Amino acid sequence: MSENNSEEKKDSPVISSDNSSTKEITIDDKIDRRHFIKWITVGWAAFIAIVAGYGSLVLRYLFPNVLFEPKQSFRAGTVDDYVIGEVSEVYKEKHGVWIVREQDKLYALSTICTHLGCTPNWQAAEAKYKCPCHGSGFYKNGINFEGPAPRPLERFKITLSDDGSIVVDKTKKFQQEKGEWSDPESFILV
Ligand code: FES
Fold this sequence. Notes:
Blueprint: H1 2-11, E1 14-17, E2 22-25, H2 27-62, E3 73-75, E4 87-88, H3 92-95, E5 97-101, E6 105-110, E7 121-123, E8 128-130, E9 137-139, E10 144-146, E11 155-160, E12 166-174, E13 188-189
Antiparallel strand pairs: 1-2, 3-12, 4-5, 5-6, 6-11, 6-13, 7-8, 8-9, 9-10, 11-12
FE2/S2 (inorganic) cluster binds next to loops.
């Protein structure tokens, strides 16, 4: 009895009406519509995925991966920020520079070991920079004295701006072995 009823239900049309006409919607029609909506949804999802993929390619083209390095020129406070006889490590991490103040001058020393480019550590107690990679040692002024480093650390251009700020410019280097440490741009007289 119930089987018959369900058979009847399946085969019998669902009748709906509006003001103008009477429409018959069968179960098959409903299934077709459901399939249609499902495939439309899948189609849209695929379309959006493709557009997003191309969009990301276009963005990568317009904004390629760029390595943003720290600025090559930076302000490093004023002369009074540095203590005579000390090595300042304030700009070591960000700019790769030690600021060294002596009695009568101040200079910017590169933190790159001249052997294979590691970063030495300033050891205040021993007044030297010691490279952890192969043991090179440099005096406070940057001159190498032990280990495989073939030459002193390099210095960067350092000047005073009109407002008294120290400006370090890493685009210009000075090498002691070339006699460049006597260049007036390689230090500031204080
Ligand atoms: S890189 Fe500094 S000693 Fe080798």
